[in-house]
Write a structure and sequence with these properties.
alpha/beta; 12 helices; five-stranded parallel sheet; five-stranded mixed β-barrel; OB fold (Dihydrolipoamide Acetyltransferase, E2P)
């Protein structure tokens, strides 16, 4: 007798067979229908040209990948088969994945670069000017690396008096991003004028701590200008794009941030010589002008006395002229004042009221006469209209005959027997039908 299984028993048997038979599998395909619920897990479909399978990446596995899974991305992944009994479906649970044709680190780099660029962290408007001659320089790097030695040697050679403060931090490994961020924060508190984040060359994996989002945001948040000097000239990191200035190497960063003292001394010497020469030329010119003025200026005290007397004379003439002008103005204003008294608003209003009363009386008289005249003309026209009105004719017993289309019948020739006509009389209208037509003869007789 064959064994009859329940759905649960069958599903459990399939689950055991698949999970024990496919403990670890490597699968390649394209991601579609990707979902990220609040739990942080990733649910999607992995498909190729002919088939598809459900795929799950739990939060811990997704965090270890170093890049974000996206719809349309082709990946190579490692995982195990799993059967979900509640739906009777099998799915692939992955614990590692890598973009097909592109390394995971490179993919993470491109994704983070695109996201930070959209947020504006690479905006040139945010980048600050590097000070020309900083008094104190902060360096974030490994204290035992070649980068710090190169920076110290170059700064000592170019400008020995500048202060250098080293904030030690790992520049490789899992702890490097946190230490770099802490070092940038410490240097901001220390009050240096510029910060150099430096590391020597290395592989993409070695430099990847400078592609960390935490480091990028620490550089962005720094109050002090930051120079990124990571790797060689061909190496680019996220820190390079966020920093206020990118230096191709740590040595180049030291040369960019510290001017050469010998060049400054030479420039100062040349400027001093030019300034001294300009002062001599200007001084000779002023001496020449002073000598010329001295020759033309005979006795300043006599000239001052003449100017004082001339000033007193002009003051006296000006005062007399002002008094005469004021007297003339007062005389010319007297008639205007008297006239203004006559033209006060109260007088004008009183005169205007009298004129208005006179005009009102005349207007009423003329208006009454005009109204009587127009009333007589109107009565005459009404009588004439009553005489000429067709209604008066109708009141005398006449009627107006019209055809159905409204044509007035002025000739019996327009009518035929049995035609329907409208007859208008004084008190209304009625319809009639033609039974007989009588036509006047030319000699006064009638014709049927």
């Amino acid at each position: 007798m064959e064994t009859i299984l329940t759905v649960t028993q069958l599903t459990e048997a399939i689950k055991q067979t698949l999970e024990e038979g496919f403990v670890v599998v490597w699968v390649t395909g394209e991601i579609s229908n990707l979902r990220r619920p609040a739990s942080g897990h990733i649910y999607c479909t992995l498909k190729d040209e002919a088939s598809q399978i459900r795929m799950v990446a739990f939060r811990s596995a997704a965090a270890r990948m170093g890049f974000d899974l996206e719809d349309g991305m082709r990946i190579v992944c490692r995982g195990r088969l799993n059967v979900y009994p509640a739906r009777g479906e099998y799915q692939l649970i992955i614990d590692a994945a890598e973009p097909k044709g592109l390394g995971a680190l490179q993919m993470a780099f491109e994704q983070l670069k695109g996201r930070l660029e959209k947020e504006g962290l690479f905006d040139p408007a945010h980048k600050r000017q590097i000070p020309f001659l900083p008094q104190a320089i902060g360096i974030v790097t490994s204290p035992s690396g070649a980068a710090v030695r190169d920076i110290l040697n170059i700064t000592a050679r170019r400008f020995p008096s500048v202060d250098v403060m080293i904030a030690p931090a790992a520049v490789q490994g899992a702890e490097a991003p946190r230490e770099i961020c802490n070092a940038i924060v410490d240097l901001n508190k220390a009050g240096v004028d510029v910060i150099i984040v430096a590391r020597g060359g290395g592989s993409l994996e070695d430099l990847f701590c400078f592609n960390d989002e935490r480091v990028a945001r620490a550089i962005w948040s720094s109050r002090i200008p930051v120079i990124s000097a990571v790797g060689h000239e061909i190496d680019f990191t996220i820190a390079d794009f966020v920093a206020d200035l990118r230096a191709p190497t740590p040595s180049a960063a030291a040369e960019l941030v510290v001017p050469d003292r010998r060049d400054l001394l030479e420039r100062t010497r040349r400027l001093r010589s030019r300034l001294i020469h300009a002062c001599h030329v200007s001084l000779r010119g002023w001496r020449t002008r002073a000598a010329s003025v001295a020759e033309r200026l005979r006795d300043p005290r006599g000239r001052i006395a003449d100017l004082r007397m001339g000033l007193d004379d002009r003051y006296a003439r000006l005062a007399g002229g002002m008094r005469r002008i004021l007297a003339m103005r007062r005389s010319s204003l007297l008639p205007s004042q008297r006239m203004l008294m006559r033209l006060t608003p109260a007088t004008q209003v009183r005169d205007l009221r009298c004129r208005i009363e006179d005009l009102r009386g005349g207007l009423e008289t003329r208006a009454g006469s005009c109204i009587d005249t127009l009333r007589g003309i109107l009565q005459r026209d009404i009588s004439l209209l009553d005489t000429l009105s067709p209604l008066s004719v109708l009141k005398r017993g006449f009627g107006i005959v019209r055809l159905p289309d409204g044509t007035a019948v002025r000739d019996v020739g327009l009518l035929a027997v049995n035609d329907s006509v409208d007859v208008k009389v004084s008190s209304g209208s009625f319809k009639a039908r033609v039974t007989t037509i009588l036509q006047e003869r030319s000699n006064g007789g009638k014709k049927v």
